[in-house]
């Protein structure tokens, strides 16, 4: 088996000697570099199994070296142990965030260093990586400094991207648009091509809403629940990184392949301390690793997503309250007229028939006076549920006011409208109503007037007036009747 190669990058020869003595073991060879630029050159050309890196060095400091190596495809898998006199928590956090696998303050304990290196070597790939073809070009000093500047430029671009995304996702209340905007941003700006956006449903399961490649009609709906890694993410509200067999298969032929070497990140979408959903990303071999820096960027984006989704939910709730009858849950008269105008325009454009019926509960005032308004309210709710159950999803059922209801019937001629109205009338007259107080159940009846839009009609009020006239005829004919407009 090839020996493990350890690259020591430190401008102090004494520290190099101490580290080498601490890590000396059978089957290990050492390569040394005295500054950051030389260290990167050796990393590219020697392709070590692990790098032990000082922070404070001439030409290029350890943070710059680490960031550069962790952003190069040929070296980003090489584990890095940082040794530094900077022992503050913020320094350690920064070192780990840019990709360091371990961060040990000086003076370091020999045992801690050996343990960190032994554990990372045990996890790393075997020695013998091939140096990149363009290693010499990459390793020139001017080229390396240029690449460091490019990384700084990219960080600025990422911050600009986050600002842009914040503006985009809070500028709309369309949930689907918000999700797809974030998905495209991750694909084009952050560099992960396999992404899925999932939101939590009422049962707590994660349901896929959009994903890379989800436009394919063969892609099945993905609903994830009961998986331990999902529970861990929801409980901790922190990202979870999965590897190999731990990863989640997400559909076919969707964005997530089933390659055993794949790596995934489950990034929670959290707002007000509640997990609303997650962004699931899968890293391919030629895409950036899930470093702390990357996870931080994705976490910031997920936070913006959570805020935008909450705003969209609040908007939907407010809008629903403004167009919904509070007692029955049906649409109110305001929404009824808006929707009727829409359906009239659609009917005129495509030449489809449009019918409307107005429905009134017979003698409902007597019911209220006899049994009380609480019983009357419950009867209204029960009838509203019945109307919704019988009508089609494309029909608009509204409470017009008091005990009067309306139903807009797109693409429905007079004959079919009458059939539906008769079904409702017949169902109502046999539905038992519980007046409460231990009294026996009673029944109610309804009168229904139907109007179908004439070709020359332009205004919603005209169609309502025709349906009302038919309703009055149903009442005049003895109630519990269905009548069509003349």
Note down, in words, how this protein is organized.
The chain has 486 residues and is of the alpha/beta class. The chain has three domains: 136 residues, Response regulator (Rossmann fold), CATH 3.40.50.2300; 170 residues, Beta-Lactamase (2-Layer Sandwich), CATH 3.30.450; 152 residues, 2-Layer Sandwich (Alpha-Beta Plaits). Helices cover 45% and strands 20% of the residues. The strands form three sheets. The chain has a six-stranded antiparallel sheet with strand order 8-7-6-11-10-9, with helices on both faces. The chain has a five-stranded parallel sheet with strand order 2-1-3-4-5, sandwiched between helices. A five-stranded mixed sheet has the order 13-14-12-15-16, with helices on both faces. Helix 12 crosses helix 13. The longest helix has 32 residues. The mean pLDDT is 85.
The strand count comes to: 16
Q: What name does the CATH topology of the largest domain carry?
A: Beta-Lactamase
Output mean pLDDT: 85
CATH homology superfamily of the largest domain: GAF domain
Kindly state the percentage of residues in helix: 40-55%
The biggest beta sheet reads: 6 strands, antiparallel
The main sheet orders its strands as 8-7-6-11-10-9
- Ranges where pLDDT stays below 50 over 5 or more residues in a row are none
In the CATH hierarchy, the architecture of the largest domain is: 2-Layer Sandwich
The end-to-end span amounts to 95 Å
So how many helices? Answer: 15
Number of separate structural domains: 3
The 3D shape can be described as elongated
**Measured on Cα atoms, how large is the radius of gyration?**
34 Å
Give the class-level CATH name of the largest domain: Alpha Beta
Structural class: alpha/beta
Q: Beta-strand percentage?
A: 15-25%
């Amino acid at each position: 088996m090839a020996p493990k190669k350890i690259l020591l990058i430190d401008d102090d020869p004494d520290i190099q000697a101490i580290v080498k003595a601490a890590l000396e073991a059978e089957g290990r060879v050492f390569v040394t570099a005295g500054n950051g630029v030389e260290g990167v050159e050796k990393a590219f050309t020697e392709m070590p199994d692990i790098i032990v890196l000082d922070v404070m060095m001439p030409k290029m400091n350890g943070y710059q070296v680490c960031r550069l190596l962790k952003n190069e495809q040929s070296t980003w898998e090489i584990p890095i142990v940082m040794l530094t006199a900077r022992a503050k928590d913020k320094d350690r956090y920064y070192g780990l965030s840019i990709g360091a696998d371990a961060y040990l303050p000086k003076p370091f304990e020999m045992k801690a260093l050996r343990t960190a290196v032994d554990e990372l070597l045990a996890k790393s790939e075997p020695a013998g990586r091939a140096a990149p073809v363009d290693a010499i070009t990459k390793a020139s000093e001017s080229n390396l400094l240029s690449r460091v500047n490019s990384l700084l430029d990219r960080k600025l671009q990422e911050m600009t991207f986050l600002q842009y995304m914040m503006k985009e996702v809070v500028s709309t209340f369309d949930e689907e648009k918000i999700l797809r905007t974030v998905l495209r941003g991750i694909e084009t700006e952050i560099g992960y091509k396999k992404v899925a956006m999932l939101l939590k449903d009422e049962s707590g399961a994660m349901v896929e809403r959009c994903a890379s490649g989800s436009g394919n009609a063969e892609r099945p709906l993905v609903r994830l629940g009961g998986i331990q890694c999902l529970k861990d993410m929801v409980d901790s509200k922190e990202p979870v990184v999965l590897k190999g067999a731990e990863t989640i298969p997400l559909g076919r032929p969707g964005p997530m392949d089933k390659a055993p070497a794949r790596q995934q990140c489950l990034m929670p979408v959290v707002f007000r301390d509640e997990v609303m959903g997650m962004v699931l990303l899968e890293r391919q071999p030629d895409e950036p690793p899930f470093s702390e820096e990357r996870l931080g960027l994705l976490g910031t984006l997920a936070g913006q997503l959570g805020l935008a989704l909450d705003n969209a939910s609040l908007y939907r709730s407010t809008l629903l309250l403004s167009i919904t009858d509070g007692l029955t849950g049906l649409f109110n008269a305001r929404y009824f007229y808006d929707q009727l105008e829409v359906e009239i325009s659609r009917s005129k454009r495509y030449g489809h028939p449009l019918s409307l019926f107005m429905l009134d509960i017979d003698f409902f005032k007597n019911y209220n006076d006899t049994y009380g308004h609480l019983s009357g309210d419950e009867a209204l709710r029960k009838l509203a549920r019945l109307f919704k159950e019988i009508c089609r999803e494309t029909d608009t059922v509204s409470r017009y006011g008091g005990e009067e209801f309306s139903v807009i019937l797109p693409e429905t001629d007079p004959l079919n409208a009458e059939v539906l109205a008769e079904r409702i009338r017949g169902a109502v007259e046999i539905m038992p109503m519980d007046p409460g107080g231990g009294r026996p159940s009673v029944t109610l009846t309804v009168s229904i007037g139907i109007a179908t839009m004439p070709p020359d009609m332009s205004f919603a009020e005209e169609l309502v007036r025709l349906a009302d006239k038919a309703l009055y005829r149903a009442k005049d004919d003895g109630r519990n009747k269905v009548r069509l407009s003349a």
